[in-house]
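Question (not urgent): is this output format expected?
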Amino acid sequence: MAGSAHRQVSVRDVATAAGVSVGTVSTVLNRPGVVSPGTRARVHAVMAELGFVRNESARQLRAGRGRALAYVVLDGGNPFFADVAQGVEEAAEVNDLSLFLCNSDNRAERELTYLTRLEQQRVRGVLATPADPAAPVLAELPARGTPVVVVDRTRGGGTHCTVAVDDVLGGGLAVAHLLEAGHDRVAFVGGPMTVGQVRDRREGALRALRGSAASLVDVPTAALTVAEGREAGQRLSGLPARDRPTAAFCANDLLALGLLQHCVGTGARIPEDLAIVGYDDVEFAATAAVPLTSVRQPRRLLGRTAAALLLKEVREEDHEHEQVLFTPELVVRGSSRGR
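Got this back:
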């Protein structure tokens, strides 16, 4: 016997070929322990011979909820989100669940499309790093039965579980370190300001400068990418020497690595000519041409914690939302030693 190349093999096909009822095949799939070993072996042998593939989607629809979590990330090209997703996946695996990853590319309309499709697929729950934490869809999904946990963002009102890092504190750690190293003119490289983390990290930088004679020079970027970091380096190097910052705090490591690439490529000395501090402490930070000082976020722990909160919400009828805020840590390396 052989299954048709143009039609999926059905439970009825298996039952006919095995000489048993459709109900028996269904029991083998869902409660194999109650079927005699001989019958169970015969049904499994026919399934293998026909190339039967279980329709898991249909089973999940009957059960009312799937066996998958989903994580909608803001930027699939940023290794920070890959590390967070790995933490989510670790928690999903322990709970015998699959994980869908979706990249919104920081586009609200694409994010909405993914969230709508995930709800239609009846996923068990959604984790999201949203373009806009106040987006109405984030409240609409839970109201219709699909829990949502906000990751690497905060959302006012206590309406959702959230897991984030204190980015204001992180920005302060970065700039306080540069002040202690003797810098009095610091560039803030980051943007767009519509991204909440960028605003918070800049606010932390400004707070660190209060009461000092040092100043902050804004170098806005269109995105948080290596290419934008290189372009920021070109703008900084084009400033008159008297106006040029001696240090730069970048809103993430990709910007910092791009800035570092530009400096190395033009012969600028790091940190003698320009000290650089990044944010996230992604894996590449420590292996850069000049090891990068960075504000470390507990990336996998963010993911594991968010997934645990989501599964807790799924299981509890009287669930109380939790807002978890982790403390960042400054990791000092060669890109920012004292002047």
